[in-house]
Design brief:
The chain contains seven helices and five strands. By secondary structure, it is an alpha/beta fold. The protein starts with a helix and ends with a helix.
């Protein structure tokens, strides 16, 4: 984990997302189980449900110079802070940028279709992210979300700057 964090600390833009075990009963609560951080070449999946702390990731989560980009990112950060308080820095909501570009739909799947002409499968979305081992579909889904979050930010900024 230390090697991954060291690598990520050299990044300037990371795709960011979290996954949480779904709840099916009113009043049930599960903390985030997974944090995904994506670079252009690799996505790192951190099983925070297994390590039970954000401490190793705090240098990244609190950095104002490492941009963490995602959709509905405020909710993810809020849930992480519920687990362990920290001072978030450098988090950017992609939908705030795309809304100014005229894209009304704010979801990751819709924005990927609009900006990347791609389609994201949501098949693994409602699965148990806290289970001892993630299956291949979960890993692919989680990695795709973080990678696309970074790519959407870059494309949205390029579109904004060329307008």
């Amino acid at each position: 984990m230390a090697a991954a964090v060291e690598t990520l600390q050299h990044a300037t833009i990371l795709g960011f997302d979290t996954e949480t075990r779904p709840t099916f009963k009113k009043g049930d609560y599960y903390p985030p189980a997974l944090i995904q951080l994506g670079t252009p070449d690799c996505v790192y999946l951190f099983r925070i449900s297994a390590i039970k702390t954000l401490a190793p990731l705090l240098p990244i989560l609190e950095s104002k110079t490492i941009l963490k980009t995602g959709v509905a990112i405020k909710d993810d950060v809020k849930e992480l802070r519920r687990m362990e308080d920290f001072q978030p820095g450098g988090f950017i909501e992609i939908a705030d940028i795309t809304l100014k570009l005229g894209y009304e739909n704010r979801g990751l799947r819709a924005l990927a279709g609009l900006l990347m002409q791609g389609r994201i499968s949501k098949a693994a979305q409602v699965s148990n992210w806290a289970r001892p081992e993630l299956d291949r579909k979960q890993i692919r889904y989680a990695a795709t979300d973080a990678w696309i979050s970074r790519e959407l930010y870059i494309r949205a900024i390029a579109e904004r700057d060329s307008a």
